[in-house]
Design a protein that fits this description.
Strand content: 15-25%
Order of helices and strands: HHEEEEEE
Radius of gyration: 26 Å
Shape: elongated
Length: 102
């Protein structure tokens, strides 16, 4: 049974074992790269749709963010957001104390 675990790494007496090793490494590399690409695409597509929570420096709670115009959830960008209700650029505020988070 032990010899089955090392099958891809064995070198035959006729010198053909190197091709098994290269094939094994190429397949493993392709699997790792495809898993990484799948994870990257998943993070790009799914994570921005999840609501993010931030610490409020005024009330001290971990809160969801809302817009200052409609008090609705926001699609976050760097230091600003886009209101999901009116689709305008807005400031991000705390849901509890209604003060800006940034």
């Amino acid at each position: 049974m032990y010899h089955l675990l090392l099958y891809p790494l064995q070198i035959d007496d006729d010198g053909g074992g190197g091709s098994h090793l290269c094939t094994y490494l190429i397949i493993m590399g392709a699997i790792i790269i495809s898993l990484y690409i799948g994870y990257y695409i998943f993070k790009k597509m799914m994570v921005p749709k999840e609501p993010r929570q931030h610490p409020c420096k005024y009330c001290g709670h971990i809160v969801d963010t809302v817009s200052d115009c409609c008090h609705s959830p926001v699609e976050e960008k760097f230091m600003a957001g886009k209101c999901t209700k009116c689709k305008k650029e807005c400031k991000i505020i705390c849901t509890k104390c209604r003060r800006p988070l940034h």
